Each structure stands twice: as C-alpha cells, then as structure tokens.
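Quick start: what a row looks like.
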Amino acid sequence: SYGTIGDKKVLAMQGRFHYYEGYSMQQITFPIRVMKELGATFLLLSNAAGGINKKFKKGDLVLIKDHINLQPDNPLRGLNDPEFGNRFVDMSQPYDKVLNKLFTTSARMLKIKIRKGVYASVPGPNLETKAEYKYLQIIGADMVGMSTIPEVMVANHIGLKCAAVSVITDECDPKNLKTVNIAEIIKVAGEAYVILSELFKSVI
C-alpha cells in the first residue's frame, strides 16, 4: 500500500514472501527492487524471531546489528546487471549505521526498550531442535527467524539503505526448551507490533 507518514511518502507491504512457502529467492526479493525503482531511498524491515540470547524475553524489540545467513540459496545468484549493482556485494555493514542510530534515539525518546543483536536466518518452516539452538548459540546468533536476510542482501546490492527490528516471540534456551505454542507466538507478535509501529513512525 502507498501513503504518507508525516511529510514522508511510504510504501508498505503487509507481510512478505518466504522461502519455505515455495518461492524462489528472486521472487522473495522482487518487491525490494520494485520499491527502489519507484523511488524508495530507505528500507525498514521487521520480523518475528526466536530469542537465543538468554537475556532476550518474549515481546522484546531487538535492532539487528549484523546477521548470519543460513538460507540454502542466494537472491544474487545468476546473471547480474551492473546497472543495479556490483556482482560481488560488500556486506561489511549491511545495516545502515545512521538508521540504526536513529532507531536507538527514537526508542529512547519514546521510552521504548530496544536491544541489539545478531540475527540468523534459516529456511524453515520447522522450528529448531535443541542441538540446532545450541549450534546457533555457538556461532554467535542472538535470535533466529526465517526471513529478512534475502531482502537485506538485495537492498545492499541496489544501494538501498536499510535497518531491521526483530520481535522476540519465544525463548529458545536449548537447556530448557518447551513445546512451541503458535497461538501464543502470534499473540506476542501482535502486542509487540503495536509498540513497533510507534517506533517505525518516529523513525520515519
């Protein structure tokens, strides 16, 4: 959908496409390329994620400072048009420092608690085993989800500055792992997104 927030023109997607739904990485990231061609200059992303860092609790907002890509395919694989971006995309700073600072400042102004962490993206749709959560801890992930990184890779490819925030919907301690309640995850996400919307509005 298209509209305005304050004096800023905004394009918004309701949800996204996921690899586990059967889409290709190129299909998943096509909306990002369309947004760029329509004149977008910034990309703000959100997702629901499982909290691996023991300090993260249900309902927490976490600003993604870096990521670990565990998806089985890459949206940049295949032919490359140099008019869109370099063949070999630099990913030393995938999330824009200025945008991340703006998120932190806005959160402080709104008295919203926001953490920072490393996001790992897996194919899904199944959730992880105890051993897999332990593995994710070992490799440095603070939270895990099934999206976002493909879009971020393409945004970096085409020169679209981006930032992303995860909503922690469940706690994934491999030593104390409980059966997942999807209804509760949806409930936690819904409650957190009310606060997240205020944060996004402030940043915009």
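That is the whole record. The mean pLDDT is 95. Residues 182-203 form the longest helix (22 residues).
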